Amino acid sequence: MTRSDADRDKLVSELMLDAGLPGDAPLKAALDSLASLAGVPAPAPRGELAALLGMPAVDHDGGTDLDGGRDLDGGTEPEADELAKRRRRKHRPIVIAGAVMTAMGLGIGGVAASGGLPQNPPEFFNQLIAGWAPRANPAPQSLLPAGPSPDEPKVTSVPAPSSPPPPESAAGSSQGRASTSPSTVPNHVRDAASKGKSSATAAGKKAAKAKPNQAAGTGRGTRPAGSAGSAPGGPAGPSGLNFKDSFEAVLDEPGIVDGSTVDGSTVDDVLDRIVRLGTRL
Amino acid sequence: MTDALTDEALQALQGNDAELFSAVYQSFAGQVYGYLSAKGVQDPEALTQDVFLAVLPRIDTISGGVKGLRTFVFSVAHARMVDDHRRQVRSPEHQEFEAERDTREVLSAEAEAMDRVAPGEVLALLEVLPEEQREVLSLRIIAGLTVEQVAEIMGKSQGAVKQLQRRALNTLREHSAVKEYVAP
Q1: What interhelical angle do A25-35 and A3-19 show, nearest 10?
Q2: According to the model, what pLDDT value does residue A44 have?
Q3: Model ipTM?
Q4: Residues A156/A140, Cβ–Cβ less than 8 Å
Q5: How far apart are the first and last CA of chain A?
Q6: Size of interface A-B (CB pairs under 8 A)
């Protein structure tokens, strides 16, 4: 019990004595509890009072005062930091979106600056397209779609090698055929032309054989005069052969037909029948 | 705990305002805080600081030693308490939040601090008393003032103060709240 408490106890006793109620224990307990309110610690000074007491020689009250001041300062600073953080968080999506858009723009610009595909096709692209051409009739290099002059290849394209052989075969000069420049004609065209030549000569022989039959009066067909020769008049394909010559060459093969006639009719007769059947249908 | 401030110590600290202010605050702030809490002001802590802001700058003008200083401090505290009560009366719409009556939540930190400073039972003891009897008891017991000092502060005669305290003690003794408080 401190001295002030002893004083307060004495004070309560005096008060009870003055009131004429000495020795009332319940009343004394109640008054003591009231007196205990005086023993509460002093509140920490703040604001002006702290400034008034915040001198060098202050006791722990001054310490609490300084602490209170720090608390106030510390209370405002974290709030400011929190506010700044929230603002930063608020702007973060905008910054990210800006960065993404910039990166996309740079990527598109880089592709455009590196040169467009149609202007400068890479080498593998040509090879890829060349590989897609049909094997039986591979297009020449100049036929590639990316070529700078698409009109030029048509001059040297497929009909070119096919048209020269018929006149040459018609001329019948094998030397002239050999003299055609092989460098300008692709190999497959040359092969087809040589085949055409051989078949053309065979057809010539066949025609020569058929002539006696015709002369014998068995020929009913109206065979054109031009076709009796080396058959240059029909439309020639890439191989340099028209359909009739090819058909005759096939029929010429041993084992397919016996001789040059089928049931006593010539090839021309058979063809005529086929044509008539086709027109009837 | 309050340290009793003696006349000698008060005399020795004259001229050294910082130490004098601190010593006075240490000696009386707790009692003023308890007195204002018992009187039911809205913000006892802030009012306590207001009291000492008014007292400390005039401390050199006070005569009568520690006794005179105590009278002066509680005179200011009483005046501030009366002002606070008048302010509360002038604004009847304002309802003070009483945590102990709010059953929705647990006690707030402020309510716990109030309970530590002035337990509800103690305040309940004073609530059964009329205003003047409560004032006399508070000044006599909590502030530790004599009948003369209380009479000076309240502006009454010493006989009136003695009569008030006698009635107050009789009321407390007869009131059931006191018996309930003391019974356990």
Answers
A1: 140
A2: 83
A3: 0.71
A4: yes
A5: 138
A6: 152
